[in-house]
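Q: What residues go here?
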């Protein structure tokens, strides 16, 4: 999920430099199109032989494949093949006009389809889902555990989103009815500019955020919001799959709370890591530590 943080959340120093372009970070991944169940999915693919495994990355609500940009080149250099996608209806992936097409189960079916393709190309797949993408990734593992070598839940939770961000989503429908995606974007941008963290984001990155959001379909915004705020707790079902899980989040996560994610990790018997100097998007807020955590986990699991 990529939405403004709550004004009540204290600003944290982040590990990225003030002029870091975040989602515009340099990488050598190649744009490609992958087959989804409802249409093509835009992706960034680092390619390679993947001696340390293939990683499939799924972004959160209003996010995109670029949310993983700072991780792509380092992971590729260390021997991973990384594929980051736009989910259906996000940014450069077209999507259906029916909000019902954006349920967690529907989105997870896309992920499973991509995972099977990647397994054929370079072998077993480590799956990572950020925020709402974590709920989708969990559903993909539940649907087909054998398709994945491991699962990483990055800033995601055990069940539906609650709290200030969920309250914000409650206003989404009326805004869409009144002025469509442009009005939603303008409203969120106005809110974001009350947060010092958002004010510090470089202008080119803010321009990218605007372009990405305005490319998002209204049906996807409605459908994913409904899915994210109604998802049941399926921690026990995930634990029963036996797929190795990493739960990792920023120390001041303002979506699912750190306490809720720690409890989820305990219930899963999963590895649990906290990324310092990060809020809800460790991949762009503290890429060096996020990379260390991910590489350590995937090495412990193994590529095969």
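A:
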């Amino acid at each position: 999920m990529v939405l403004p943080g709550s004004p009540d959340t204290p600003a944290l120093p982040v590990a990225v430099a003030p002029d870091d372009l975040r989602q515009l970070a340099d990488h050598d991944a190649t744009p490609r199109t992958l087959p989804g169940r409802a249409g093509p999915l835009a992706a960034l693919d680092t390619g390679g032989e993947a001696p340390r495994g293939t990683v499939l990355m799924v972004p959160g609500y209003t996010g995109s494949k670029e949310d993983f940009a700072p991780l792509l080149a380092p992971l590729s250099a260390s021997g991973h093949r990384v594929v980051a996608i736009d989910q259906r209806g996000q940014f450069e992936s077209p999507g259906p006009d029916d909000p019902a097409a954006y349920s967690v189960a529907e989105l997870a079916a896309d992920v499973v389809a991509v995972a099977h393709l990647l397994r054929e190309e370079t072998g077993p797949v480590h799956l990572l889902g950020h925020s709402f993408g974590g709920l989708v990734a969990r559903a993909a593992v539940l649907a087909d555990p054998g398709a994945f070598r491991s699962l990483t839940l990055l800033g995601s939770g055990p069940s539906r989103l609650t709290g200030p961000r969920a309250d914000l989503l409650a206003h989404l429908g009326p805004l869409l009815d009144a002025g469509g995606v442009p009005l939603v974007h303008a409203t969120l941008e106005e809110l974001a500019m009350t947060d010092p963290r958002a004010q510090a984001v470089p202008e080119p990155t803010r321009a990218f955020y605007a372009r990405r959001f305005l490319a998002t379909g209204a049906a996807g915004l409605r459908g994913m919001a409904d899915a994210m705020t109604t998802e049941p707790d399926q921690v026990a079902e995930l634990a029963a799959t036996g797929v190795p899980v990493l739960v990792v989040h920023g120390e001041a996560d303002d979506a699912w709370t750190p306490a809720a994610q720690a409890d989820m990790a305990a219930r899963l018997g999963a590895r649990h890591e906290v990324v310092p100097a990060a809020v809800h998007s460790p991949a762009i807020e503290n890429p060096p530590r996020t990379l260390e955590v991910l590489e350590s986990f995937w090495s412990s699991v193994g590529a095969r």
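A: Context that may help when evaluating the design: The CA atoms of residues 122 and 174 lie 45 Å apart. Residues 172-192 form the longest helix (21 residues).
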